[in-house]
Amino acid sequence: MSLQPVSEPAGPGPEVHDGIRTRIRSFATRRGHLTPGQRSAIADLGDALLLPLRDEPLDTAAVFGNAHPVTLEIGCGMGETTARIAADNPERNYLGVEVYTAGVGTLLRRIDSLGLTNLRVIQADAVEVLERMIAPAGLAGAHVFFPDPWHKKRHHKRRLIQPPFVALLASRLAPGARLHCATDWPDYAEQMLAVLDAEPSLRNTVAGYHPRPAWRPLTKFEQRGLRLGHPVFDLIHERVG
User: Fold this and answer.
1) Is residue 111 one of the residues assigned to a domain?
2) Catalytic residue among 44, 112, 148, 234
3) Reduced to 3 states, what is the DSSP secondary structure of residue 138?
C-alpha cells in the first residue's frame, strides 16, 4: 500500500485535529516522520487492515466476517489503548480512526503482533467517516480518549467535543450504545460534561463524572500524569430513543 501522510493545507478551510474536521481560519501543517517499522507496517499490512474512505455505509459483517457489535475509537494515537481493548474484548469489533500516518503505522504493527482479527483502521477525518461510512444507529459504542485539550483559551474553539460533532456522533449510536470520553484537563472536562449533558439524544449514566472503568487501560502518559497528581475525568453517556 502506498503511503499518503495526512497534513493540513496552509490556508482557509477545514483543519483536522484528533481526526475531526473543524472550521477555523488558519492551519498548522504537520507531516510526521515515519520510522522504518511504521513504513513497512503500512506497506505490508495496509491492504488487509486499512479501510479506505468510501461514500457508502460500511458493511462491518463483511469486513470482520461476523455480526459482532462495533465500537468506534476516534483519535487512536499510537494505538496502545485501542489494541489492548480489542485484545481484551474478542466478542466485539473495533474501528480505529486516526489521521496521522505515524500513529497508523504503529497501530498496524500492534494489530499484527497481537494477532487481532477484530480491529481495523481508517486513516481519515472522523467527521467524514461518520458522515459517509457509518449508518445511523450503526455503532454499539464510541470512544474519545484524551483528545487534544487545546489548553489556551483562544484555541478552545478547536476542541473536538463541541455540540455539532456530538450530535453527529450520537446519531450514529444505536439505542443503548455508550459514548465514553476521557480527559485529564479539568476545564475541558467541564466543557465535555456540559456539551454531552445538553445533547438531547444522550443521557449521563451517572451524576457528573464516571469512575474510571476497570476495563479502560491506563496509558503510560496517563500513569505519568497520575503520579504527578493530575486528575482524570471519565464521562459515559448513553444513547436514548
Assistant:
1) yes
2) 148
3) coil
Give the per-residue pLDDT at 228. 87
pLDDT band at residue 28 using 50, 70 and 90 as cut-offs: very low
Q: Is residue 131 part of a domain?
A: yes
Task: Specify whether the CB–CB gap between 139 and 10 falls below 8 A.
Answer: no
Among all chains, which residue has been given the C-alpha cell 449533558? 197
Helix (H) or strand (E) holding 178, with range, is strand 173-183
Confirm whether 26 is domain-assigned. yes
- Its pTM stands at 0.87
Contacts within 8 Å (CB) and 24+ apart, 148-156: 148/17, 148/18, 149/183, 149/185, 149/188, 150/17, 151/185, 151/187, 151/188, 156/191
148 is catalytic: yes
Contact 201, 227 (CB under 8 A): no
What is the number of domains present in the chain? 1
**Residue 240's Cα: distance from chain center in Å?**
21
Across the range 76-94, mean pLDDT stands at 96
What ranges make up the beta strands (E) of the chain?
Answer: 13-17, 20-24, 70-74, 93-97, 119-122, 139-145, 173-183, 202-204, 233-239
- CATH number, domain of 69, equals 3.40.50.150
